[in-house]
Write a structure and sequence with these properties.
about 120 residues; alpha+beta; Nuclear Transport Factor 2, Chain: A; seven-stranded mixed beta sheet; 3 helices; about 35% helix
């Protein structure tokens, strides 16, 4: 089961957060997330699939031409998973790095917590 959940996290990065087409992203969210999912950032909490899709649309609009890349394989421990990622222009060094931590329920993401890394100069 942990391999399947790890693949779910990787699909989430590419097919949800990396998908610029809202309809395709909504379909991926419906397949990967619980209906009452919650997305947590440091300053914000988003509840539900539609709200998540809207949030990601705003994030992607702020980063035109940027792509998400996994920084390594997802790791899963029972009902928790983590995936480190990079965001930046295709083929270039990342502008932002971070990590997602997911809580799984019945083979779907119930909650996703996103952590952004501090720049080295901070």
């Amino acid at each position: 089961m942990s391999d399947a959940l790890g693949r779910l996290m990787e699909k989430n990065l590419l097919e949800v957060f990396g998908q610029r087409d809202p309809a395709r992203r909504a379909a991926a969210i419906a397949g990967l997330y619980a209906a009452d999912c919650t997305f947590f950032e440091a300053e914000e909490q988003i509840v539900g699939r539609d709200a998540l899709n809207t949030k990601i649309e705003h994030l992607l609009q702020e980063a035109p031409g940027f792509v998400f890349r996994a920084a390594g394989p997802a790791q899963v421990n029972h009902d928790l998973g983590r995936l480190q990622w990079h965001l930046g222009p295709a083929g270039a060094s990342p502008v932002v790095t971070g990590m997602d931590v997911a809580l799984f329920e019945h083979g779907r993401i119930r909650a996703l917590y996103t952590f952004l890394d501090k720049p080295a100069s901070d």
